[in-house]
């Protein structure tokens, strides 16, 4: 792995630890201010709104900006931002509107950082598919360990020391991450496109995803998956209490089992890709997720439920390594930000629908019903996307993307050359305009 990857890995791990701290602390801070469920939901929802409102436009901006600079500026800005609620907590003027505004701005910073990091990584690794899988496996594993295991308990413990303490800790994590990212090696910037409006460029990036069957298949997995998983998450605590007869501590162990499975899945993702082929591995992990949720719905006791959640987490962990790695290997550098943000936005838009679906099904029928419906959605999605992300299609896309790494600097000479990294199906009309030209690259989500 290139030397710079170690610094990027360390920066994202530290930042994920801070995220875990704030994810536990912000809801608890809100709970200390009010018991109104709608007010608490406002703070939670505010963090997802930037992806819904600015996801595609944010990707277009990242494709215009220097990605390394975008990352460290976003982290530095979030470090400064967290000083505001920390001071408000010290002076006793913390409020729900302030927490909601901070959550929104943190989410906006996360949009720019995550999109830029996704676009920067393939340039750092020379777009090598094997290196990308290895890198994403390490990044995903570290993120799960830091934000899923270490961060939330640390956030709760720090909150006991004072309302401002977890916010300061998160600010420090962002500051350290910004310093590390600032020291990363520069990578060549994509060749500038013909001057177009930001909206037109954003639309071109979204169109690139929807007109490419492989990329659309990769985007549909998290979108449908989020509907299913949020339907499950909405009723999981109630299901655990009513059907499995476990309390708060047991419920925490269930979530820990899922996170442990996620670590295992991230660790074996590259092995599965090599043995089965990336396309087949993605189909298998999607099927495993659906069958695991079906097993959870039918679980007779807490032990079986924990095993089902661990298996589901393993499938999710592997999918979240293989899918982004493949996308990073085949998407042209000058479109990476827009493709990544479009895919992420589809998933974020689907999540609220899943939460509503789970609540409605549990109210209208039974607490197990959302789990059965979620399993059906995941298995149906597996069948629909199996041909879209097949080994044959993946291999063709990787072969088509290979010349992009050695493309000449003259963009005009390569704008519509055969074998560009668009991975269009045979017979699909060529995409028109400078937005789809293949840019040279030395080397995403």
TrEMBL record:
<dbReference type="InterPro" id="IPR020846">
    <property type="entry name" value="MFS_dom"/>
</dbReference>
<dbReference type="InterPro" id="IPR010290">
    <property type="entry name" value="TM_effector"/>
</dbReference>
<feature type="transmembrane region" description="Helical">
    <location>
        <begin position="246"/>
        <end position="272"/>
    </location>
</feature>
<feature type="region of interest" description="Disordered">
    <location>
        <begin position="409"/>
        <end position="429"/>
    </location>
</feature>
<feature type="transmembrane region" description="Helical">
    <location>
        <begin position="345"/>
        <end position="365"/>
    </location>
</feature>
<feature type="transmembrane region" description="Helical">
    <location>
        <begin position="371"/>
        <end position="389"/>
    </location>
</feature>
<feature type="transmembrane region" description="Helical">
    <location>
        <begin position="38"/>
        <end position="60"/>
    </location>
</feature>
<dbReference type="Pfam" id="PF05977">
    <property type="entry name" value="MFS_3"/>
</dbReference>
<protein>
    <submittedName>
        <fullName>MFS transporter</fullName>
    </submittedName>
</protein>
<dbReference type="GO" id="GO:0022857">
    <property type="term" value="F:transmembrane transporter activity"/>
</dbReference>
<feature type="transmembrane region" description="Helical">
    <location>
        <begin position="218"/>
        <end position="240"/>
    </location>
</feature>
<feature type="transmembrane region" description="Helical">
    <location>
        <begin position="279"/>
        <end position="297"/>
    </location>
</feature>
<keyword id="KW-0813">Transport</keyword>
<keyword id="KW-1133">Transmembrane helix</keyword>
<feature type="transmembrane region" description="Helical">
    <location>
        <begin position="72"/>
        <end position="94"/>
    </location>
</feature>
<dbReference type="InterPro" id="IPR036259">
    <property type="entry name" value="MFS_trans_sf"/>
</dbReference>
<dbReference type="GO" id="GO:0005886">
    <property type="term" value="C:plasma membrane"/>
</dbReference>
<keyword id="KW-0812">Transmembrane</keyword>
<keyword id="KW-0472">Membrane</keyword>
<feature type="transmembrane region" description="Helical">
    <location>
        <begin position="303"/>
        <end position="324"/>
    </location>
</feature>
<feature type="domain" description="Major facilitator superfamily (MFS) profile">
    <location>
        <begin position="1"/>
        <end position="393"/>
    </location>
</feature>
<keyword id="KW-1003">Cell membrane</keyword>
<feature type="compositionally biased region" description="Low complexity">
    <location>
        <begin position="409"/>
        <end position="422"/>
    </location>
</feature>
